[in-house]
Design brief:
Layout lengths: L3 E3 L1 H31 L7 H25 L1 E3 L15 E6 L5 E7 L10 E3 L3 H6 L7 E6 L2 E10 L1
Parallel strand pairs: 1-2, 4-5
Antiparallel strand pairs: 3-4, 3-7, 6-7
Length: 155
């Protein structure tokens, strides 16, 4: 299986989430199951059913994060190309369609979150930005049509 790029910060955040699930959430769920079981007949016990469903969700999430961590490759952004967009770069863009400005960090697919200003390196915009420089114009084909951007700043 191909390794998935991730920033050190993204890796650490996934690791913290995993530890929280294992050390805090999982014991809480086990306790909720025990309490629901103590209420008697579990075949008609809605609390027990809900606790078991929550346990299934938590265990699935734990396996998912463990798989992401196992298949990730930390890419330190210490070796970014000088003056060019690369993995880990923070890029400020001007949307030429509406004159708005946006700032995004180029990250791996497992840590992308558009609401936090993090876009995946494999997204259409992420792919289009790689190796571009300040003042370059970038065309991105999206389901909503072609978007045009100018790179204002790279850090």
């Amino acid at each position: 299986m191909a390794r998935s790029p991730i920033t050190r910060n993204g890796y650490n955040n996934l690791h913290k989430e995993l530890e929280n699930l294992k050390k805090v959430i999982r014991p809480q769920v086990i306790k909720a199951i025990e309490e629901a079981r103590a209420h008697g007949d579990i075949s008609e016990n809605a609390e027990f059913v809900a606790a078991k469903e929550h346990q299934s969700f938590v265990e699935t999430k734990i396996r998912e994060i463990e798989q992401k961590l196992a298949n990730s490759e930390i890419i330190d952004n210490l070796n970014l190309p000088n003056g060019k967009v690369g993995f880990g770069s923070v890029v400020t863009l001007e949307n030429l369609n509406n004159s708005g400005q946006v700032t995004y960090q180029i990250v791996g697919p497992d840590e992308s979150d558009i609401s936090s200003g993090k876009i995946s390196i494999v997204s259409p915009l992420g792919k289009a930005l790689i190796s571009k420089e300040v003042d370059d114009e970038v065309l991105v084909k999206t389901p909503g049509g072609t978007k045009r951007y100018t790179i204002l700043k790279i850090t």
